[in-house]
Amino acid sequence: MANRASAIIPAECEEQLQISKRVAAHGAIEETVISIGGGSEKELELCNGKTKEVLDPEADIIEIRKKIHRFPLNLTRLGTDGGYITPRAMALGPYYHGKPELQAMEEVKRKAVDYFEGLPESQEAALERMKSISGQARGCYADAAALQGITDDDFVSMMFVDGCFLVQFMAVLIVTTKDDRLKSLVKPHTICIMRDMMLLENHVPWTVIEFFMALRADLLPMELFVGFVFTLHGTGPRDFLSSVDIDKNYRPSHLLGFFRFYLVGNYQKPVLAVPQEDYKVHLTTNAAELAGMGIKLKAREIPQLCHMSITKGPLFAKLSVSPLSLDSTSICWLVNMAALELYDRADCVNSYLTLLALMMKQEDDVRELRAKGIIHGFFADRQILELINALAPDLSPGQTYALLIMSLAEYRHKRRHWIAVYRFFCNNAKAIAAVLPIVGVLVGILKTLLSLKQKQQ
Q1: 326, 386 in Cβ contact below 8 A?
Q2: What is the pLDDT of residues 238-248, one digit of tens each?
Q3: Based on C-alpha coordinates, what's the Rg of the chain?
């Protein structure tokens, strides 16, 4: 039995754009409906997260972006069922500080502080300096109740240990530290740390990270760390490691926001004029159906999720999508980035994951996406299908997804006659291939008979 799950649309677009997904019981998206209300002077801005972060002038939205939030209620089922909310090994910040099951990593973090490279003064002096930013850091947490009972001194100590460890860990990953003792201390916990450091509720403010990065700026090039992570998760070619352009003016609220900024990417904001009358688009498709419409899938070389586009040729079209390596860590990061977008009027990660879910209705679709280089990873086809479809009912795709769906629907409508012919030949290719030689023989016989008849005359 199918059910209908409505998407959450940013406030400024609610009157113009409505997206709904008809989702099957097993999670696959059976149909997407885009509905736009009429209005001659309205414009629907189809924008990506990075542009919005720079251009949105509303003070309240900017203030919300600075906060470290709790996981949004809309995605709680998804986060709880998938284990995407609570840290498994390491607490960062106050929300999970002091949990008994995380105490083993507390000892590791404290030891790592002793190996910090670049500290120009004693730990006590550096700790004293951190007090100057502790008030600002404390105000970054949206859940003030979680800070009750934590004194100012305890908060400063927590920020010092957590921030120092996080910067140390990044240095170990990109091999800028030469201290083998630190490497041996951190590396056994690498996978768990990489998962936990990207949970929406498990962060230290960016000002704390900057505090420690400034002490060793020459030893921690962030472009290498971004490139390392993206290469690790298969979101780009190997040379991407050296091609990340770090925006020195961008200051996120935390590390998750930092990575989302570069994973989403930047491009010119397209604008779609809203039609005079109510406008609806219904689209049901998957990877196999796209192929039947003459739309070829292509993995983009640029590993940025916002770059989803359809290019129309004279006969066929090409749907370009960024590649992704799916494993338990990368999917956890993406779900938390999708959760972050709900506080940010952005939609690229939600739109990207929804598009993947739209294209995956059966295992053959997963194999097709693998063959095209869009999906990578060691998960079995069935695992990927179930994993992505489990996300579909709760995701909140926005304008980025709507633009692509409307482009696909327009292509299908305008080329419906050509698609019918192409689909006929695709569906009957074997029969046609078998008949053609026979036709060729018959034509040859007819030509021979005609030539004999002409000679007799």
Answers
A1: no
A2: 454 455 677 77
A3: 27
* Unique residue bearing structure tokens 């030689």: 437
Question: How far is 67 from 143, CA to CA, in rounded Å?
Answer: 9
What is the C-alpha to C-alpha distance for residues 423 and 255, in angstroms, rounded to an integer? 47
Owner of token pair 């990578």: 376
Rounded (10°) CA dihedral 323, 326, 330, 331: 110
Q: Are 48 and 306 in contact (CB under 8 A)?
A: yes
The greatest distance separating any two alpha carbons of the chain, rounded to the nearest whole angstrom, comes to 114
**Torsion sign (Cα): 230, 207, 94, 79:** negative
User: Which of 129, 352, 346, 99 shows the shortest CA–CA distance to 201?
Assistant: 99
DSSP summary character for residue 377: S
Cα–Cα distance for residue pair 133/408, rounded to 1 Å: 50
Instruction: Measure the N-to-C terminal CA separation of the chain; round to a whole number of Å.
Output: 73
Q: How many residues does the chain have?
A: 457
Q: In the beta sheet, which residues pair with residue 32?
A: 21, 283
Helices (H), 114-151: 123-138
DSSP-H helix ranges across 91-248? 103-113, 123-138, 152-173, 180-186, 190-196, 206-215, 222-232
In angstroms, the CA 389 to CA 81 distance is 13
pLDDT single digits (tens) 225-279: 777 777 665 554 445 445 567 777 888 899 999 888 888 876 444 554 444 445 5
Contact 219, 117 (CB under 8 A): yes
Q: Say how far apart CA 408 and CA 159 lie, in whole Å.
A: 48
